[in-house]
Fold each of these.
Amino acid sequence: MMSILYPLNWLLSCAASVLRLGAGTAPDRVLTDKPLIIYEFEGCPFCRIAREAVSETGVTVLMRPCPKGGQRFRPELKEIGGKAQFPYLIDPNTDTRMYESADIARYLKETYGKRGRPIVHWLGPIGQISSQFAVLLRLMGGTFARQSVAPRKALELYGSERSPATRIVKELLCEMEIEYLWQPAPLAGGRVPQLIDPNTNKTQTGAVNIRRYLRETYSA
Ligand SMILES: N[C@@H](CCC(=O)N[C@@H](CS)C(=O)NCC(=O)O)C(=O)O
């Protein structure tokens, strides 16, 4: 079913990237001692602003997806931060923790960014409305949890926030509450999205293949 609908899904994802004026283009990789950690969900317009900032800096982030109804990382954030509000950033390298998408975007740029903010982040409320519309364009993908089996080790995903095909993969990872190490910087010589699963030693490339693999391996 997904394969038949994929061209439409991909077009809608392209439209979401256009609506965000291409924000979330990845530069070269920025190495940190430890990966940053973000609690968020794909269908959250504020989380998109944080993800775009991550992607624009090129830092590696351990993504802990918290879709609505999720049981894996939502309760964990409530315990750590005190409330279920997304996005939430932890930077173990500087011992920094924060809520608020605008603060997270500012922190990432000031700490790791080599270039300016994406245009859409300068637009204030218009930028936020465009992010809300992008959620609608994605038909609320990456908003609600679906049952899955938790992998033992976090998966690894290559692909930027701007990439329409990567978004389609991230939505499923989010709905399945699968923790993954997100590397938004370009993959040297390889195609994105690319998923590496250290639990099965398998590598998958392309949104359709990756989604099929995730369903076959981790559906409950
Ligand atoms: N001002 C905050 C707003 C964040 C916010 O309202 N996030 C929503 C999701 S889009 C949330 O946490 N809702 C609670 C929930 O999903 O349970 C920001 O910019 O980060």
Note: The first strand starts at residue 36 and ends at 40.
Amino acid sequence: MDVQSAYTAWAATYDSMENPTRDLDGVATREMLGERRYGEILELGCGTGKNTVYLAEIGERVQALDFTEAMMARAREKVSAANVTFAAADITQAWPCADGAFDLVVTNLVLEHIEDLGHIFAEAARCLKPGGWLFISELHPFRQYGGLQANFEFGEETVTIPAFVHAISDFLDAGREHGFALLRLAEWWHQPDRNKAPLVVSFLFEK
Ligand SMILES: C[S@@+](CC[C@H](N)C(=O)[O-])C[C@H]1O[C@@H](n2cnc3c(N)ncnc32)[C@H](O)[C@@H]1O
């Protein structure tokens, strides 16, 4: 299954099935962004809106993008805030955003499905205001090295979604090459797993 077909199939159970990565990413996002208020927020790959709900609280306005309509349909049901707009877009193409329009670009658990990190950083640099922030939270590559990959049960089948491994240094290099300064890198564990490889990694960059 390709990425879009897989998320179309997963949409109905994405929120309800057990998913420690999804849950830890939600905690990481709230801890990393929690101290401030933001103006214009762009969310890439909003999915079923797990983080969109929170972004609507901390931002003046949120533009949420995703290329899987079935995932965004769930988000539309969940997020009733008037300051959120959803739109279909493939983030591997040019983003439907004006230059310098956003204060914060956020993406969670999406970039493992994107081969070209350089395109994401280039578009983020274009769409952010000077001094704007880029927040990225992903399945930690150490877990990918161990074989973990986004997957779900679909009928009798376990569907594994196509993914790319991006090393920590790939994110840091892409940030530097596109004019970003790293403000914070954080790694996250569920407490019982504190001595294992971290499950989630988050980056906060400033343009
Ligand atoms: C694991 S879900 C994450 C959803 C949400 N950000 C969260 O943290 O729960 C990945 C999402 O990325 C979206 N996605 C993957 N590749 C994409 C692309 N090229 N353009 C837009 N959305 C994409 C999928 O449709 C899916 O909704």
Note: The chain has one domain: 3-206.
